[in-house]
Amino acid sequence: MTTEGIEAVFLETHNWGRTAGFLRALGFEMEFDTGHNSGQFRNGEGRPYVFVAEIPGTEQPRTQLMLKVADPEQVHLDGDVDVVSGFEETHYGTREMTVRDPDGRLWALQAPGKR
C-alpha cells in the first residue's frame, strides 16, 4: 500500500476569525463554515484542503497532516511503522488511522467512511 499524497492539513487555533482572515489573505477560499468556530478552506481545485478548528487558550495548538488512502482494507504496514491506532470511523464521515514516525511525530491516514 502507498498513500496518495496529502489529503489535508488540520490546524488548531486560538482565534478562528483571525486565522480564517489569514488564510483568505493567502488566497484560500472557505468551502464551508461549521458554525462553531471551525471550517474548511481550499486554494485551487483538487488541492489538499485546510481544516481549521478553534481550541481553548489553555491548549497548545497543533498542526497535523492527513495522508490520503483510497481503501483502508489494502493498508499493510511493515515493521518500520509504529501504529498508534488502527482505522476508526470519525464523526465527520471518514476513517482515520494514526502512525508515529521515527522522530515521534504523529501522522494521520484518512480514508473514505463506510458507505
CATH architecture: Roll
In CATH, the topology is named 2,3-Dihydroxybiphenyl 1,2-Dioxygenase, domain 1
What is the H-and-E element order? EHEEEEEEE
Number of strands: 8
Mean pLDDT: 89
Looking at the structure, what is the overall shape? globular
What's the CATH class label?
Alpha Beta
Strand content: over 45%
InterPro entries: Glyas_Bleomycin-R_OHBP_Dase (IPR029068)
Organism: Nocardia aurea
Protein name: VOC family protein
Break the fold down into its secondary structure elements and pairings.
Elements: E1 6-13, H1 16-25, E2 29-33, E3 38-42, E4 49-54, E5 63-68, E6 82-89, E7 94-100, E8 106-112
InterPro entries: Glyas_Bleomycin-R_OHBP_Dase
Protein name: VOC family protein
What features would you highlight for this structure?
115 residues, 8-stranded mixed beta sheet, 9% helix, mainly beta, 1 helix, 8 strands, 2,3-Dihydroxybiphenyl 1,2-Dioxygenase, domain 1, single chain
Notes on the protein architecture:
With 115 residues, the protein is mostly beta strands. The protein has a single domain (6-112), classed as Roll (2,3-Dihydroxybiphenyl 1,2-Dioxygenase, domain 1), CATH 3.10.180.10. It is 9% helix and 45% strand. It contains 1 helix and 8 strands. It has an 8-stranded mixed β-sheet, with helices on one face. A hairpin with a 4-residue loop joins strand 2 and strand 3 (38-42). The mean pLDDT is 89. This is VOC family protein. It comes from Nocardia aurea. InterPro entries: Glyas_Bleomycin-R_OHBP_Dase.
